[in-house]
Design a protein that fits this description.
alpha+beta; Glutaredoxin; four-stranded mixed β-sheet; 3 helices; globular
Length: 93
Amino acid sequence: MSNKILVFTMDGCGHCKSLKNRLEENSIPYMDIEITDNQHIWNQVVEQTGHSLLPTIFIKKEDSDDGPVFIPGRDYQSEDEIVKIIKNQIKKG
């Protein structure tokens, strides 16, 4: 896989835990970025997107710091939808 999946989460967030479980069930490797422990990174995401909803997904393109950001409610409405989006992004790799 060439794209790196970053999932921004917060301890105690049920939606975050559920999405991580779905990614694991689908054998989709990801990096969990817990926002409380990584406040400076999260602040950059919020500043760039104007949104602070979780779980937010960033798909970092290979050999680049760029890539699409997917925000709940704006870019996806359900776990099924975001898992499908992630799978499509991985294929584009």
